[in-house]
Task: inverse folding
């Protein structure tokens, strides 16, 4: 048995060494069709990364987007929900996130940064809002609670990251001051979500 294991181990070692061998291959320049078929070598250059979220403009745009989603989904829940807890939570979210939006605008003004916040939702969050609006009456409250957990977690992560590593002091102060409130909202949303688990 031990001998079999040693033989198998030696075989794996040999295969591993062969796989690590230099496979340098010289090739001519890519044809136009090959270039079109090959994805961009650096696609992340056009899509903001997590590291970009420490830049004031990227942070502000994402925070405003998530904040708008909270307000719009709260309005939808106030109109659609038949659950008293959900309606109460939605009312609090509309008010609280209205204040968060004002706080973000004030922080941007105090920083002197030339950032113009979006007036409409990003495609992803608009799609999420559209999905929520299409939910059946039976599923709406659960889907709303799920969306609130996801959105508040995303917002909390964004705020905490910027509060720690952000590049603009006035906006960092806003992020640090807002994170505890968003944590409270997240905790409440998680409680709501648990109430709808089958």
Result:
């Amino acid at each position: 048995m031990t001998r079999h294991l040693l033989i198998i181990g030696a075989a794996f070692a040999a295969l591993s060494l062969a796989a690590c061998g230099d496979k340098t291959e010289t090739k001519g320049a890519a044809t136009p069709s090959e270039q079109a078929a090959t994805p961009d070598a650096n696609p992340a250059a056009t899509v903001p990364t997590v590291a970009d979220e420490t830049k004031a403009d990227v942070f502000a745009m994402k925070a405003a987007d998530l904040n708008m989603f909270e307000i719009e989904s709260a309005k939808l829940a106030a109109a659609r929900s038949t659950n008293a807890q959900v309606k109460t939570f939605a009312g609090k979210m509309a008010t609280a996130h209205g204040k968060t939006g004002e706080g973000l605008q004030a922080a941007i003004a105090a920083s002197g940064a030339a950032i113009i916040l979006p007036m409409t939702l990003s495609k992803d969050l608009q799609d999420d809002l559209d999905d929520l609006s299409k939910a059946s009456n039976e599923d709406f409250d659960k889907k709303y609670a799920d969306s609130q957990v996801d959105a508040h977690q995303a917002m909390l992560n964004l705020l905490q990251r910027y509060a720690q590593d952000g590049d603009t002091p006035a906006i960092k102060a806003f992020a640090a001051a807002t994170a505890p409130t968003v944590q409270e909202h997240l905790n409440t949303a998680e409680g709501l979500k648990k109430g709808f688990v089958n």
In short: DSSP finds seven helices and no strands in the chain. Helices lie at 2-20, 32-37, 56-80, 84-111, 123-133, 137-165, 169-195. The first helix runs from residue 2 to 20. Residues 56-195 form a domain with the Ferritin fold (CATH 1.20.1260.10).
